[in-house]
Amino acid sequence: MPVNESMVQDIVKEVVARMQLSGTAQSAQHGVFNDMNQAIEAAKEAEKTVRRMTMDQREQIVSNIRKKTHEAAEILARMGVEETGMGNVGDKILKHHLLADKTPGTEDITTTAWSGDRGLTLIEMGPFGVIGAITPCTNPSETVLCNSIGMIAAGNTVVFNPHPQAIRTSIFAINLVNEASLEAGGPDNVACTVFKPTLETSNIMMKHKDIPLIAATGGPGVVTAVLSSGKRGIGAGAGNPPALVDETADIRKAAADIVNGCTFDNNLPCIAEKEIVAVDSIADELMNYMISEQGCYLISKEEQDKLTATVLTPKGLNRKCVGRDARTLLSMIGIQAPENIRCIVFEGEKEHPLISEELMMPILGLVRAKDFDDAVEKAVWLEHGNRHSAHIHSKNIDNITKYARAIDTAILVKNAPSYAALGFGGEGFCTFTIASRTGEGLTSTSTFTKRRRCVMSDSLCIR
Description:
Elements: H1 5-20, E1 32-33, H2 36-52, H3 55-84, H4 89-102, E2 112-116, E3 119-127, E4 130-135, H5 140-153, E5 157-162, H6 167-183, E6 191-194, H7 199-207, E7 213-217, H8 220-227, E8 232-236, E9 242-245, H9 251-263, E10 275-279, H10 280-293, E11 296-298, H11 301-311, E12 312-313, E13 316-317, H12 326-331, E14 343-347, H13 353-356, E15 363-369, H14 372-383, E16 389-393, H15 397-407, E17 411-414, E18 434-435, E19 441-442, E20 449-457
Parallel strand pairs: 1-6, 4-5, 4-7, 5-6, 7-8, 9-10, 9-16, 10-15, 11-14, 14-15, 16-17
Antiparallel strand pairs: 2-3, 3-20, 12-13, 18-19
């Protein structure tokens, strides 16, 4: 049955009503609790059951999460946009279908074996237990669902501390995970959270004796806090991915790919193109294609200053601008842009605040470089050592190799939009937790396991 606005409003009202309940009536309802300690205890009890489940049983839960994510993709997308004001429904629908199809499950768990004269040794991937997860408002339900698939497939349960600005959407996704588990014969509370996540509930989670692993998807502040917790931490932090274009690239295609990647979900993905570094000889051609064919609006120096004052405040990014479309951002500085405008472009030095700062908005500053080596140097500076993501458009293998070694990021996309890194128009699996800072890179089920060696000496080798 097609989803309409009335249905979405009814669902949102239902979730809000649950959040407004008081007393014990709201506790233990599909993983949502008043108190973080209660949530952790419930997840711990559920983990005792999950740990005993066979791989096939875990895979049944994961398969049902995938199915229900497909069914609820439009609802979750609309809830996310309505609650946070960020992104756009169409792209969020695509992201939910992508994660449902391409997030690894139990197939990602493998065993290494050595068999010889001295017996048999196995290295097996086992669960941590109860994982604590911090999720962002930029991809709220996507991160909850993606993390849940990987963590549960690995034999864990998970306690989420979602971003408060996306709590309704996050709770809906957590309910979906638990419903999927129950329908597949698993326990309730495989994913848990609290009705009102705060810094205090996050601190409780990070310090709790029953949480051995914490996965944080968010800004540098939350990742730093996790890495200071004394626990094993997986930190998916900030990036400022540059897109480098050299003189050998297909310039017209590069313009289309860069703008398509930058504008996907209004630039919310952390892997998205945030700025361009172009070799001087092709910079004008690239800018011309972006303006004439890709719906880009070229702003003047005066308009740049107005936009800078609007999107950047003394305390950081203006939250009212993050994840907004280009026409909305232009309207904030008094420009009524045509309907086809989807990206704001300009040329500036690498130190320009709209270029050097990660904005998560469809704004692309172009930095001109005198040659390829200069472009690499500027791109590396702009990436700020986050080692997160970077992009290049080139047909010169030596140039691509030189850039890849210099930028040293977890993700490097060549001659494609940034979202190819997540398996959308490219090969490979999907994830919404990219742990560049702690080195895991694109996380998957195997990331949420610990390696254990099992040795049988002088036995079970039957050669």
